[in-house]
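Reminder to self: tokens first, then the designed residues, so the page reads top to bottom the way the pipeline ran.
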């Protein structure tokens, strides 16, 4: 397939990366045919996306059975249309993907095949797996399609889940801005993901909700040292990690009985 600039496409988007991409005019791709937001209750940055779409004269939909039917109709009317998913929070079924002839691309904030699924800013810190961002062809199984373009994002010793999330978003925006559509078309149909990797569900985060210090005396000693050194304006605890010297403090609060879920 040739790498001609510009293709007709639908943007399925949610959150800051999708909003910024749309606000910037979607790069060389130009405005989409339409924008589909997450369903109500699962939307982030929806007002900004609506405003950007309105400025470009692009209709906006919210994910629903009716919106899915409108996409099927569009696929029948426009046999050359694509789907571009940017942090979209809903699974696209096989019938819908087939209607678009498989021309569906997803931006996922991990270095696939690592961290298929959710919380991709958490598992590189907890499990030590690589982090990054990937554009891949969509298949009915979540985050399992062939890779079209990807970039590594280093995990630094001072990273928290918040700082890593921000850097993944920044790199994801750079990747989709530069690779859509020419880079994607040049790489189509992509390279099958390698063996191994990892996959996580929302429920997997439950294992990280609590940590029993009473059962881990070494962790208890470190925790006590850390909270003892959390005393502004004095410096925090200096920690050596990977040849780097870090300064750490902690903020604590007691969880009230009515906040507990056990």
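Designed residues (262 positions):
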């Amino acid at each position: 397939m040739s790498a001609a600039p510009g293709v007709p496409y639908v943007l399925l988007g949610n959150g800051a990366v999708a909003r910024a991409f749309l606000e910037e005019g979607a790069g060389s791709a130009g405005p989409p045919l339409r924008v589909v937001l997450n369903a109500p209750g699962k939307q982030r940055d929806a007002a900004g996306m609506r405003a950007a779409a309105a400025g470009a004269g692009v209709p906006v939909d919210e994910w629903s059975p009716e919106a899915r039917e409108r996409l099927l109709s569009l696929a029948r009317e426009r046999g050359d249309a694509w789907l571009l998913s940017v942090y979209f929070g809903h699974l696209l079924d096989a019938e819908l993907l087939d209607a678009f002839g498989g021309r569906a691309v997803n931006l996922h904030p991990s270095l696939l095949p690592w961290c298929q699924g959710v919380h991709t800013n958490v598992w590189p810190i907890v499990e030590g797996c690589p982090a990054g961002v990937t554009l891949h062809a969509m298949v009915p199984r979540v985050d399992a399609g062939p890779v079209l373009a990807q970039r590594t994002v280093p995990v630094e010793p001072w990273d928290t889940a918040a700082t890593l999330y921000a850097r993944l978003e920044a790199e994801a925006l750079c990747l989709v801005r530069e690779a859509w559509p020419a880079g994607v078309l040049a790489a189509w149909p992509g390279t099958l993901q390698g063996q191994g990797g990892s996959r996580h569900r929302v429920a997997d985060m439950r294992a990280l909700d609590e940590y029993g210090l009473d059962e881990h005396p070494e962790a208890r000693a470190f925790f006590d040292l850390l909270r003892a050194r959390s005393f502004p304006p004095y410096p925090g605890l200096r920690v050596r990690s990977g040849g780097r010297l870090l300064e750490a403090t902690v903020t604590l609060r007691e969880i009230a009985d009515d906040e507990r879920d056990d």
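Residues 1-5 have pLDDT under 50 and may be disordered.
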